[in-house]
Amino acid sequence: MRSHSEMMKLIFSKAEDERILLVTQEGSRNSNEADAFSDYDITYFVEDIDTFDDTFIEDFGEIMILQKPEAMACLKHAKTYLMMFQDGNRIDLKIAPLWDLETYLHEENVHVLLDKRNLCLQKDYINHTYEIEMLSYSDALACINEFYWISLYVLKGILRHDLLYANYYFTHICMEECLKMMSFDIQLHHHEKIKLGKCYKRIFEYIDHCDHELMNKWFHTASTLEMGEALLSCMSLFEAYAKDAFSQLNWSMPKEVENVTNYVYRKLNKKR
């Protein structure tokens, strides 16, 4: 596997192309969280994007798999190459025209690696990516409604012994809504904005051991019994964090919390 210094040397050597005016980096490589699995999120800004074609990436290394997705919202006119190499390195490369630069700087956490024409006023541009979403009362009610409505889908799958059905709704919706409510409550306890990172990966830094143990049950769902335990653990966490958040804000909890929870426990022959 090529080392970090080798990868950066490659990225800079490609930037020697006179058509490339600015090189920037986004993502975890801009922080102290990068590891051997971290991607190189690189953007080359150019004046004339039409002079670039797929031959530009030919000497980055032996590609294991390549994707060329649609342009990002903040780089609407870019050509994108997601490259996973045989040695395990990955570069997410964007070749973007200069007219996308202003929007990009406002929407990405950016570190400027090379600026041939002094196009940027500073080296680092920080935005609010992954900051916890603060919910209005109506948003919080919608989160509660969605969580408990979908919990009944999960329950139905469990009672039918249809684990694929139950797992789909549990992992795609219930877990997401629970993490949203948990993060909202966590933020309410802090005076400054905190970031939990992509997929809420730092949430474990802000919860206690008991809650961590409950979350561990989410990932053992190979049987009907385990699926039921996963659902109940998720419902327990959601209710606890929702009640705490609503209490802090003097909001009233909707009746559906008790109604659905009692119904699920009854159907699973469990006591609260």
Produce a short descriptive summary.
Helix content is 41%, strand content 15%. The protein has 272 residues and is an alpha+beta fold. It has two domains: 122 residues, Beta Polymerase, domain 2, CATH 3.30.460; 131 residues, Nucleotidyltransferases  domain 2 (Four Helix Bundle (Hemerythrin (Met), subunit A), Up-down Bundle), CATH 1.20.120.
Can you lay out the helices and strands and say which pair or pack?
Layout: H1 4-14, E1 20-26, E2 40-46, E3 63-67, E4 79-85, E5 90-97, H2 101-107, E6 110-115, E7 124-125, H3 137-159, H4 163-188, H5 209-216, H6 224-248, H7 256-267
Parallel strand pairs: 2-5
Antiparallel strand pairs: 1-2, 1-6, 3-4, 4-5, 6-7
Helix pairs in contact: 3-4, 3-6, 3-7, 4-6, 5-6
Q: Output the strand order for the largest sheet.
A: 3-4-5-2-1-6-7
Largest pleated sheet: 7 strands, mixed
Q: State the CATH superfamily name of the largest domain.
A: Nucleotidyltransferases  domain 2
Number of domains: 2
- From the spread of the alpha carbons, the general shape counts as elongated
Low-confidence stretches: none
User: What percentage of residues falls in helices of 4 or more residues?
Assistant: 40-55%
- The beta-strand count equals 7
